[in-house]
Specification:
The chain is an all-alpha fold. The chain contains two helices and no strands. The longest helix has 24 residues.
Length: about 45
Amino acid sequence: MVQTLRRALVAMGAAGVVALVVRLRGSGGTPPRHGGWRELPASELE
């Protein structure tokens, strides 16, 4: 019972560390400087 609880806590801690690293690193790179929203012609709305 104690060993199972310990394994669960270690797994949750490892998942937390991985989530923190991914969050701190971010998506990487810079957002694109061109593109983005464009106005749609009426023909594409139907």
